[in-house]
């Protein structure tokens, strides 16, 4: 095992998180304490924290599933399309037969575009959570 | 075969540069963390080049073009799948895996499932998939060196095996990051520049149509040296001049072959006139040009069940990438989950550019090096095309460039595989993460596949690589996807799924490799097992986890937070 601060290994002899002790609220440092407390809530899996992260997981999973569906239909549907309409495979575009143009060239920018949408949207989902935590 | 005077110096140069960059990297590698994951300070641009450099193996550099040459439209799914695999990785795995903070796949399994036994099981599969993938790399090296210099097969395999093992044992991952990044750009150049000239030559020759003739024909009078016994199928009667043993009789003079099969013994020399139709090696299931160009024509070698073969291939490549050990270990070198995503996005761009070129070689190979369809060694198309189509000094120089690129492909992929196999061996089998243990493990990890590669000469590079994807898709893909997104996964469920998917797919690999069933439903199922084994692995994991629901880790909530919470929340910085 290698020592490292940010690992998730379970042999780490940390006890199960205890409920946080009551804190004295200092009005002058109120905002700071709030942020701090929200973080600790997430970390210690109080109900609020769990709900927050559950929401994020659901958002990220549904994003991934939606984009997978796009790929499954538009890319994964191609063999079926060519099986059902063999004449499509004979169509030539710019001197290239359609299957060669689609699979040999256009598939790559398309996959990149889907990936780009995912990165943007996944980061936005995370930003939404961070903003929410900051504003509580 | 065309031998280029520049090929050997080019290969030596690539090897030396790899060693020098590796030695330069050693200065930075001082702790175990440096060795294993480059202390996690690699930027997305460097990392993406390195991931792509590591990923583009013999299968991508030589195999894809060879497959396209043989089977045409249906195998375009190989490069598409190799790329789409990174999209699947991005959608389901990249950021959470980085946030898990684990170094290797067994680390992840133990952290997520809280069991030491599942860790060992994963370690076994990492080593197995790693070795399965290493053998064809070393074989490709033997083939390349043999094709371009006439050296014996074992020499290329030993050279790559020794160079890579020494480099990994002394430099570890930090130097590998530099080496891999350099090798992506080398490989892209080595494939793109000759492809550009090949297209020019093709244009100058009047852009001959690939489907004008019914079957491929010899463009000029061609002499073929048969180096291995081969049975060929003749589609149209052909006249030739033969010296050697043909159809069991010694021949020295003109010959006419009617349609049907003919046996040619090793050492025979066949001379075909220009315009003669090319006889095809029997295992290629002689394919006419129109069938070749049409989807579902060949099914990538399974003409009876093209649709099943195509979908099974799609499943294996789309889902197998995330389960390849050398791919996964790279994600731990990103500074955080966000960087892991951006790295993957860049990788998709780099792979997309690279994979435009093998198709060009595969298609032009049918015009300029059709004799490979006779000998069956289509993996050599990339190496021989520049010499055959361009010729002269230019052809020789470009031939040397592709040979250097091919060697870069073997060096980089084998390095990456070796780092992950050695990492797992040293931490899980030896049980110590020390630098000395890592070095010892690297030596063991390198020697085993080298011995295997020297034993088995006749395996097809692209077939074995495809099977490695199928095994990865049937084991680590369900483990990662369910482990990251489903709280209900238990250690027992994961183990059952790994064993079910793993054993089924490995059985298919063994039967196919040992030359078992080739025809019928069983043949296609064994050669493309993913469509069966991936759903089985998922189903077993889910059902058995449900049955053992009490074993869900008690701190599953905390684990899910660590996997999915963005670093900006600060939950990952726990004081220890």
Provide keyphrases for this structure.
heterodimer; A: 136 residues; mainly alpha; two-stranded antiparallel sheet; 4 helices; disordered N terminus; B: 576 residues; Sodium/glucose cotransporter; 2 domains; four-stranded antiparallel beta sheet; three-stranded antiparallel beta sheet; globular
N→C terminal distance of chain B: 63 Å
List the chains of the largest interface with their residue counts. Answer: A-B, 63 and 72 residues
Topology as H/E string of chain B? HHHHHHHHHEEEEEEEHHHHHHHHHHHHHH
Query: What is the SS-derived class of chain A?
Result: mainly alpha
What class would the helix/strand composition of chain B place it in?
Answer: alpha+beta
Beta-strand segment tally of chain B: 7
Q: Please indicate the percent range of residues of chain A in DSSP E strands (runs of 2 or more).
A: under 5%
Number of continuous helical runs of chain A: 4
Q: Helix-strand pattern of chain A, N to C?
A: HHHEEH
Name the poorly predicted regions of chain A.
1-16, 25-33
Low-confidence stretches of chain B: none
CATH H-level name of the largest domain in chain B... which superfamily? Sodium/glucose cotransporter
So what's the overall shape of chain A? Answer: elongated
Q: Largest sheet of chain A, order of strands side by side?
A: 1-2
Strand order of the largest sheet of chain B: 1-6-3-4
Oligomer: heterodimer
Instruction: Please tell me the total number of domains of chain A.
Output: 1
């Amino acid at each position: 095992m290698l020592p490292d601060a940010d690992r998730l290994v379970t042999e780490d002899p940390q006890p199960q998180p205890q409920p946080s002790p009551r804190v004295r609220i200092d009005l002058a440092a109120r905002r700071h304490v709030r942020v701090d407390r929200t973080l600790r809530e997430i970390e210690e899996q109080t109900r609020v924290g769990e709900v927050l992260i559950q929401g994020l997981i659901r958002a990220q999973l549904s994003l991934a599933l939606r984009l997978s569906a796009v790929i499954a239909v538009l890319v994964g549907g191609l063999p079926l399309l060519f099986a059902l309409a063999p004449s499509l495979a004979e169509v030539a575009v710019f001197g290239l037969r359609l299957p060669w143009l689609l699979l040999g060239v256009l598939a790559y920018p398309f996959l990149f575009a889907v990936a780009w949408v995912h990165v943007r949207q996944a980061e936005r989902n995370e930003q939404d959570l961070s903003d929410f935590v900051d504003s509580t | 075969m065309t031998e280029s005077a520049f090929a050997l110096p080019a290969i030596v140069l690539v090897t030396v540069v790899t060693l020098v960059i590796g030695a330069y990297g050693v200065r930075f590698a001082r702790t175990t963390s440096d060795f294993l994951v480059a202390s996690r300070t690699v930027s997305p641009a460097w990392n993406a080049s390195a991931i792509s450099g590591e990923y583009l193996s013999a299968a991508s550099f030589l195999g894809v073009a060879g497959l396209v040459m043989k089977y045409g439209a249906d195998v375009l799914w190989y490069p598409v799948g190799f790329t789409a695999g990174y999209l699947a990785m991005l959608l389901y795995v990249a950021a959470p895996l980085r946030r898990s903070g684990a170094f290797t796949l067994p680390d992840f399994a133990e952290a997520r499932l809280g069991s030491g036994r599942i860790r060992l099981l994963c370690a076994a599969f990492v080593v197995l998939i790693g070795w399965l993938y290493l053998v064809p790399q070393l074989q490709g090296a033997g083939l390349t060196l043999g094709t371009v210099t006439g050296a014996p097969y074992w020499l290329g395999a030993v050279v790559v095996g020794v160079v890579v093992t020494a480099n990994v044992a002394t430099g570890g991952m930090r130097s590998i990051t530099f080496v891999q990044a350099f090798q992506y750009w080398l490989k892209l150049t080595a494939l793109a520049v000759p492809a550009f000239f090949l297209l020019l030559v093709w244009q100058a020759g009047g852009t001959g149509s690939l489907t004008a003739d019914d079957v491929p024909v010899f463009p000029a009078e061609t002499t073929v040296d048969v180096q291995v016994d081969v049975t060929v199928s003749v589609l149209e009667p052909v006249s030739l001049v033969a010296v050697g043993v043909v159809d069991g009789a010694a021949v020295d003079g003109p010959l006419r072959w009617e349609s049907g099969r003919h046996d040619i013994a090793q050492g025979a020399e066949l001379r075909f006139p220009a315009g003669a139709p090319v006889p095809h090696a029997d295992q290629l299931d002689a394919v006419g040009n129109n069938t070749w160009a049409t989807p579902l024509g060949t099914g990538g070698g399974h003409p009876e069940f093209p649709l099943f073969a195509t979908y099974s291939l799609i499943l294996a490549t789309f889902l197998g990438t995330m389960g390849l050990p050398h791919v996964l270990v790279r994600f731990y070198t990103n500074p955080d989950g966000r960087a892991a995503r951006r790295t993957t996005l860049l990788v998709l761009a780099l792979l997309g550019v690279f994979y435009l070129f093998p198709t060009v070689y595969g298609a032009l190979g049918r015009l300029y090096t059709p004799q490979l369809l006779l000998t069956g060694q289509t993996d050599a198309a990339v190496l021989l095309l520049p010499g055959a189509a361009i010729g002269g000094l230019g052809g020789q120089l470009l031939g040397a460039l592709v040979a250097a690129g091919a060697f870069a492909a073997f060096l980089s992929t084998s390095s990456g595989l070796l780092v992950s196999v050695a990492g797992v061996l040293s931490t899980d089998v030896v049980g110590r993460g020390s630098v000395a243990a890592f070095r010892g493990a690297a030596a063991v990890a390198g020697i085993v596949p080298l011995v295997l590669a020297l034993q088995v000469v006749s395996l097809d590079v692209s077939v074995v690589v495809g099977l490695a994807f199928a095994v990865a898709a049937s084991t680590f893909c369900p483990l990662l996807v369910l482990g990251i997104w489903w709280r209900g996964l238990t250690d027992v469920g994961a183990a059952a799924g790994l064993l079910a998917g793993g054993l089924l797919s490995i059985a298919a690999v063994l039967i196919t490799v040992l030359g078992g069933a080739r025809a019928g439903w069983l043949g296609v199922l064994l050669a493309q097992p993913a469509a069966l084994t991936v759903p089985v692995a998922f189903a077993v994991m889910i059902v058995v986890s449900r049955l053992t629901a009490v074993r869900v880790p008690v701190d599953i909530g905390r684990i899910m937070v660590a996997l999915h919470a963005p670093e900006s929340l600060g939950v990952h910085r726990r004081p220890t």
